[in-house]
Amino acid sequence: MPAMRLFLICAVACAVISARAQDVIPTKVNDQNRTGGLPFSTSIGTDVESVDVAGDNLRVHIPIVSIPGRGMNSGLVLTYDGRFWLASRYVDIHGNYIYQWKFESRGAAALSSAIGWRKNVGYFTHGTKKFSCLNNTATYLTNYIYIDPDGGKHPLAVQGAASSACAVQDANGPDLGGEGMWGMMPAEEEGQQPRVGESA
Known about the structure:
Helix content: under 10%
Order of helices and strands: HEEEEEEEEEEEEEE
Largest sheet: 5 strands, antiparallel
């Protein structure tokens, strides 16, 4: 019996790890993947666990370490957010659209194979698109989403070029949620991740 129990634990662990290898990077924010504390919404619960009334999203905050600072505190908080599934659209061999459920990639905030759990770290996601430009193929980094330390998603109206002979015209722009943020693509030598600040 103990050998069978060990086998089942190993089988489940392997299934979780293989499922994590198929993560999908979000390229837009919709009702299906909207995470974090939603503005103008009501939640029921406590500081540790709560359910968002508008979206039925379960969130659990477990503070691990709190470090007081001068004007701004720091610390480590583990957060569970129940919206980690995405319906991803693919094209099959016959040219038909099919949808598959995949786990959302949590980037730098992910906790290895702990599905739904994340650290309180902000990070960016983006997609890539290829276009024809001046008899070449240009690769643009687009659909940037800033995920704040609380898990809230903020789509940004910015894009950059991974390789292009054509200039990018929208290297700076607001967040598309109207929350007063401003995205700025850095200079080429600084890397490809935008910065986020308050709009003027």
